[in-house]
Design brief:
Helix content is 71%, strand content 0%. The protein contains 6 helices and no strands.
Length: 209
Protein backbone atom coordinates (compact mmCIF):
# COMPACT_ATOMS: atom_id res chain seq x y z
CA UNK A 1 0.00 0.00 0.00
CA UNK A 2 1.32 3.41 -0.96
CA UNK A 3 1.62 5.99 1.80
CA UNK A 4 2.70 8.93 -0.35
CA UNK A 5 0.57 9.56 -3.41
CA UNK A 6 -2.09 7.09 -2.31
CA UNK A 7 -5.47 7.33 -4.02
CA UNK A 8 -4.20 7.89 -7.56
CA UNK A 9 -6.31 5.72 -9.87
CA UNK A 10 -4.52 4.01 -12.78
CA UNK A 11 -5.56 5.28 -16.19
CA UNK A 12 -7.15 8.47 -14.84
CA UNK A 13 -5.60 11.59 -16.33
CA UNK A 14 -4.84 14.09 -13.51
CA UNK A 15 -6.45 17.50 -13.86
CA UNK A 16 -5.98 20.77 -11.99
CA UNK A 17 -9.23 22.47 -10.96
CA UNK A 18 -9.60 26.22 -10.46
CA UNK A 19 -12.67 26.02 -8.19
CA UNK A 20 -12.47 26.28 -4.40
CA UNK A 21 -15.40 24.15 -3.26
CA UNK A 22 -14.02 20.65 -3.68
CA UNK A 23 -14.29 17.77 -1.21
CA UNK A 24 -10.56 17.78 -0.27
CA UNK A 25 -10.62 21.56 0.25
CA UNK A 26 -13.62 21.20 2.56
CA UNK A 27 -11.66 18.62 4.57
CA UNK A 28 -8.77 21.11 4.80
CA UNK A 29 -11.17 23.83 6.02
CA UNK A 30 -12.36 21.44 8.74
CA UNK A 31 -8.71 21.05 9.75
CA UNK A 32 -8.43 24.84 10.07
CA UNK A 33 -11.56 24.94 12.26
CA UNK A 34 -10.29 22.17 14.53
CA UNK A 35 -7.21 24.18 15.53
CA UNK A 36 -9.02 26.66 17.86
CA UNK A 37 -11.08 23.75 19.24
CA UNK A 38 -7.83 21.99 20.15
CA UNK A 39 -6.43 25.12 21.83
CA UNK A 40 -9.60 25.49 23.91
CA UNK A 41 -9.55 21.83 24.96
CA UNK A 42 -5.94 22.07 26.14
CA UNK A 43 -6.65 25.35 27.97
CA UNK A 44 -9.53 23.63 29.79
CA UNK A 45 -7.24 20.64 30.51
CA UNK A 46 -9.51 18.24 28.62
CA UNK A 47 -6.43 16.37 27.49
CA UNK A 48 -8.17 13.20 26.35
CA UNK A 49 -10.45 15.12 23.98
CA UNK A 50 -7.52 17.26 22.86
CA UNK A 51 -5.64 14.09 21.89
CA UNK A 52 -8.62 13.01 19.78
CA UNK A 53 -8.69 16.44 18.11
CA UNK A 54 -4.96 16.13 17.33
CA UNK A 55 -5.43 12.66 15.87
CA UNK A 56 -8.21 13.99 13.61
CA UNK A 57 -5.96 16.89 12.58
CA UNK A 58 -3.21 14.48 11.64
CA UNK A 59 -5.57 12.10 9.85
CA UNK A 60 -7.16 14.81 7.69
CA UNK A 61 -3.68 15.81 6.52
CA UNK A 62 -3.46 12.43 4.75
CA UNK A 63 -7.16 12.03 3.94
CA UNK A 64 -7.55 15.26 1.95
CA UNK A 65 -4.64 14.30 -0.32
CA UNK A 66 -6.03 10.81 -0.80
CA UNK A 67 -9.51 12.14 -1.62
CA UNK A 68 -8.09 14.74 -4.01
CA UNK A 69 -6.28 12.06 -6.02
CA UNK A 70 -9.05 9.46 -5.82
CA UNK A 71 -11.77 11.90 -6.94
CA UNK A 72 -9.37 13.68 -9.30
CA UNK A 73 -10.09 16.96 -7.52
CA UNK A 74 -6.61 18.43 -7.16
CA UNK A 75 -7.10 22.20 -7.28
CA UNK A 76 -4.99 25.32 -7.58
CA UNK A 77 -6.28 26.50 -4.19
CA UNK A 78 -5.69 23.12 -2.57
CA UNK A 79 -2.04 23.07 -3.61
CA UNK A 80 -1.32 26.05 -1.34
CA UNK A 81 -4.17 25.69 1.17
CA UNK A 82 -3.14 22.21 2.36
CA UNK A 83 0.50 23.08 3.25
CA UNK A 84 -0.66 26.35 4.85
CA UNK A 85 -3.09 24.37 7.01
CA UNK A 86 -0.28 21.99 7.98
CA UNK A 87 2.11 24.76 8.93
CA UNK A 88 -0.52 26.74 10.84
CA UNK A 89 -1.68 23.68 12.75
CA UNK A 90 1.85 22.66 13.74
CA UNK A 91 2.81 26.19 14.80
CA UNK A 92 -0.34 26.65 16.92
CA UNK A 93 0.00 23.18 18.46
CA UNK A 94 3.66 23.78 19.32
CA UNK A 95 2.93 27.24 20.76
CA UNK A 96 0.04 25.85 22.83
CA UNK A 97 2.26 23.08 24.19
CA UNK A 98 4.93 25.56 25.22
CA UNK A 99 2.48 28.04 26.80
CA UNK A 100 0.81 25.25 28.78
CA UNK A 101 4.16 23.83 29.89
CA UNK A 102 3.68 20.56 28.01
CA UNK A 103 6.76 20.97 25.80
CA UNK A 104 10.04 22.94 26.05
CA UNK A 105 10.58 26.25 24.24
CA UNK A 106 12.89 24.72 21.62
CA UNK A 107 9.89 23.02 19.98
CA UNK A 108 8.46 26.39 18.92
CA UNK A 109 11.83 27.84 17.91
CA UNK A 110 12.70 24.90 15.64
CA UNK A 111 9.29 24.95 13.93
CA UNK A 112 8.62 28.69 13.67
CA UNK A 113 12.04 30.21 12.85
CA UNK A 114 12.71 28.13 9.68
CA UNK A 115 9.16 28.79 8.47
CA UNK A 116 9.55 32.55 8.95
CA UNK A 117 12.85 32.48 7.05
CA UNK A 118 11.34 30.48 4.17
CA UNK A 119 8.29 32.72 3.86
CA UNK A 120 10.46 35.84 3.92
CA UNK A 121 12.87 34.34 1.38
CA UNK A 122 10.03 33.34 -0.93
CA UNK A 123 8.50 36.81 -0.74
CA UNK A 124 11.87 38.39 -1.45
CA UNK A 125 12.60 36.31 -4.55
CA UNK A 126 9.10 35.63 -5.93
CA UNK A 127 6.95 38.30 -4.27
CA UNK A 128 4.73 35.40 -3.19
CA UNK A 129 4.83 31.62 -3.03
CA UNK A 130 7.52 29.86 -5.13
CA UNK A 131 4.90 27.11 -5.72
CA UNK A 132 7.13 24.13 -5.04
CA UNK A 133 5.73 20.65 -4.33
CA UNK A 134 6.10 19.23 -0.83
CA UNK A 135 9.15 16.95 -0.66
CA UNK A 136 9.17 13.46 0.83
CA UNK A 137 11.37 14.81 3.61
CA UNK A 138 8.69 17.37 4.38
CA UNK A 139 5.96 14.73 4.38
CA UNK A 140 7.91 12.45 6.73
CA UNK A 141 8.68 15.45 8.97
CA UNK A 142 5.00 16.37 9.17
CA UNK A 143 4.00 12.77 9.89
CA UNK A 144 6.53 12.53 12.75
CA UNK A 145 5.40 15.82 14.30
CA UNK A 146 1.73 14.90 13.97
CA UNK A 147 2.48 11.56 15.65
CA UNK A 148 4.74 12.89 18.41
CA UNK A 149 2.48 15.73 19.55
CA UNK A 150 -0.58 13.62 20.44
CA UNK A 151 1.66 11.07 22.16
CA UNK A 152 3.22 13.86 24.24
CA UNK A 153 -0.25 15.15 25.14
CA UNK A 154 -1.47 11.62 25.89
CA UNK A 155 1.11 11.53 28.67
CA UNK A 156 -1.08 14.09 30.49
CA UNK A 157 -4.14 11.79 30.37
CA UNK A 158 -4.69 9.81 33.59
CA UNK A 159 -3.60 6.21 33.14
CA UNK A 160 -1.08 7.07 30.41
CA UNK A 161 1.39 9.06 32.52
CA UNK A 162 4.32 6.67 32.24
CA UNK A 163 7.95 7.36 31.42
CA UNK A 164 8.06 5.04 28.40
CA UNK A 165 5.34 7.01 26.60
CA UNK A 166 7.04 10.31 27.41
CA UNK A 167 10.38 9.01 26.10
CA UNK A 168 8.81 7.70 22.89
CA UNK A 169 6.98 10.99 22.28
CA UNK A 170 10.14 13.01 22.90
CA UNK A 171 12.22 10.86 20.52
CA UNK A 172 9.59 11.08 17.76
CA UNK A 173 9.32 14.84 18.18
CA UNK A 174 13.10 15.20 18.11
CA UNK A 175 13.22 13.21 14.86
CA UNK A 176 10.42 15.36 13.47
CA UNK A 177 12.30 18.53 14.38
CA UNK A 178 15.47 17.17 12.76
CA UNK A 179 13.42 16.39 9.65
CA UNK A 180 12.01 19.91 9.78
CA UNK A 181 15.50 21.37 9.63
CA UNK A 182 16.46 19.04 6.77
CA UNK A 183 13.30 19.98 4.88
CA UNK A 184 14.10 23.65 5.53
CA UNK A 185 17.57 23.34 3.98
CA UNK A 186 16.21 21.33 1.04
CA UNK A 187 13.40 23.80 0.38
CA UNK A 188 15.78 26.77 0.66
CA UNK A 189 18.03 25.14 -1.95
CA UNK A 190 15.12 24.45 -4.30
CA UNK A 191 13.76 28.01 -3.98
CA UNK A 192 17.19 29.42 -4.85
CA UNK A 193 17.59 27.01 -7.78
CA UNK A 194 14.14 27.83 -9.19
CA UNK A 195 14.85 31.56 -8.96
CA UNK A 196 18.15 31.14 -10.82
CA UNK A 197 16.47 29.05 -13.53
CA UNK A 198 13.74 31.64 -14.03
CA UNK A 199 16.35 34.39 -14.32
CA UNK A 200 18.22 32.43 -16.99
CA UNK A 201 14.99 31.83 -18.92
CA UNK A 202 13.84 35.44 -18.79
CA UNK A 203 14.82 37.68 -21.76
CA UNK A 204 17.54 40.27 -21.06
CA UNK A 205 16.33 43.78 -20.33
CA UNK A 206 16.68 46.22 -23.19
CA UNK A 207 18.91 49.20 -22.63
CA UNK A 208 18.34 52.55 -24.28
CA UNK A 209 21.03 53.89 -26.58
Amino acid sequence: MRVFGAGQRPGVEPRLLTVFWTVPNLITVVRFLLVPVFVWLVDQEHYGRAVIALVILGATDWVDGYVARFLNQVSVVGRWLDPVADRLALIVVAATFVVQGIAPNWLVYIIVIPDVILVSYGLLLFHGSPDLPVSKIGKVRTALLLLGTPLLLLHRVPGFDNDALLTAATVILALGCAGHLLAFVDYLRKVTLKHRQLKLMSPPEETSA
